[in-house]
UniProtKB/TrEMBL annotation:
It is found in: Mitochondrion matrix. This is NAD-dependent protein deacylase. Zn(2+) binds at C165, C168, C216, C219. Signal peptide: none annotated. It is an enzyme of class 2 (transferase). Keywords: Metal-binding, Mitochondrion, NAD, Transferase, Zinc. Transmembrane segments: none annotated. GO terms for cellular component: mitochondrial matrix. GO terms for molecular function: histone deacetylase activity, NAD-dependent; NAD+ binding; zinc ion binding.
């Protein structure tokens, strides 16, 4: 019996090509052998057959821009430290936790905001321009897809470049808040540690005791990054919007995500229910490997920059 076109097997003949990771930015990219030629051909065939491609991207896409992820073996935040990201409930209930968070974020912001799109972001933007990519959903909050010029985009977990007021809902630019921090803390200094995936750095508690945090200019409410913290839920309207874009698509490609968080994994379950072809490009296993007809192991930029949106 002939298998469906999206059910593909992998072989191991390597293709040698130049690394997509700029020098000095490879510390957060997990070890990975060069993607084999057969897998590249099969992924090219998958993309070529799709007419309205739905893409889900994750932290593995941005590690090649120098931003660490949480879960990668050996190099992710969880592997390198015992630190864990801010929980939504803790941020909301504790002024001291907010002070600590914003002090760390203030120190890390100049570096975090300076990161630039890599070859994978640029390739996906070109796929959009060619009409191949129908919609892109990213779990990342780093704005790199927007910096690359992506328009058909949903930032599922929000964006660290925006700030929201928990009182009145006003949205402002994170860069504007940075100026307010500087004005309120002209003499405050702290020695930064390693940068985390959401843009903050590691500081000792005593370093942040005198850091001053402003309130909302509009209502005096609590300011929070416009991102979904751990323990919080994605807005229902956003989830429904993404489901609608998925329903308009004819194939799903996961790029650089382990899909361990349900907010992204749910769309793979929906694609499976619709019997849509699914391909995954990621270093290491994912939660949805059993739902994919094609699994390719490789660096996102190295692979996507070769695939043509034919």
């Amino acid at each position: 019996m002939r298998l469906p076109w999206w059910t593909l097997t992998l072989h191991s003949a390597p293709v040698r090509r130049t690394s997509s990771v700029p020098a000095g930015m490879s510390n957060f990219v997990p070890a990975c052998s060069t993607t084999d030629a057969q897998s590249m051909d099969q992924l090219q065939d998958f993309v070529s057959r799709a007419r309205r491609l739905f893409v889900i991207s994750g932290a593995g896409l941005s590690t090649e821009s120098g931003i660490p992820d949480y879960r990668s073996e050996g190099v992710g935040l969880y592997a390198r430290t015992d630190r864990r990201p801010m929980q939504h409930a803790e941020f909301v209930r504790s002024a001291k936790s907010r002070q600590r968070y914003w002090a760390r974020n203030f120190v890390g912001w100049p570096q975090f905001s300076s990161h630039q799109p890599n070859s994978a972001h640029k390739a996906l933007q070109q796929w959009e321009e060619s009409g191949k990519l129908h919609w892109l959903v990213t779990q990342n909050v780093d704005a790199l897809h927007s910096k690359a010029g992506q328009k058909r985009l949903t930032e599922l977990h929000g964006c660290a470049h925006r700030v929201m007021c928990l009182g009145c809902g006003a949205i402002s630019a994170r860069e504007e808040l940075q100026r307010r921090f500087i004005s309120l803390n002209p003499d405050w200094r702290a020695q930064a540690g390693a940068v985390a995936p959401d843009g903050d750095v590691f500081l000792e508690d005593e370093q942040v005791l005198h850091f001053r945090v402003p309130s909302c200019d509009e209502c005096g409410g609590i300011l929070k990054p416009e991102v979904t913290f751990f323990g919080d839920s994605v807005i229902k309207g956003t989830v429904q919007f993404v489901h609608d874009r998925l329903a308009e698509s004819d194939a799903v490609l996961v790029v650089g995500s382990s899909l361990q968080v349900y907010s992204g994994y749910r769309f793979l379950l929906a694609a499976s229910d619709r019997k849509m072809p699914v391909a995954i490009l990621n270093i290491g296993p994912t939660r949805a490997d059993h739902l994919a007809g094609l699994k390719v192991s490789g660096r996102c930029g190295e692979v996507l920059s070769v695939i043509q949106p034919l």
